[in-house]
Design goal:
Blueprint (H helix, E strand, L loop, with lengths): L1 E4 L2 E4 L5 H7 L7 E5 L2 E2 L15 E6 L5
Parallel strand pairs: 1-5
Antiparallel strand pairs: 1-2, 3-4, 3-5
Length: 65
Amino acid sequence: MKVLVNNKEVKTGATTLSQLIEELALPVQGIAVAVDNRIVLRTEWTKCALREYMSIIIIKAACGG
């Protein structure tokens, strides 16, 4: 299936948001995820089913000054 991650098309075999995060080798801590413009809590990642061309925005926390 294909989904949009930060406006880029990504082909994935993942069926849930948590599987996609793991497949993309992203850290579980320090990121925020929105699906179709709605924030998805980390506790809901395993329940969030992916569908074709779903829009996913992933924001990584950054330290600095």
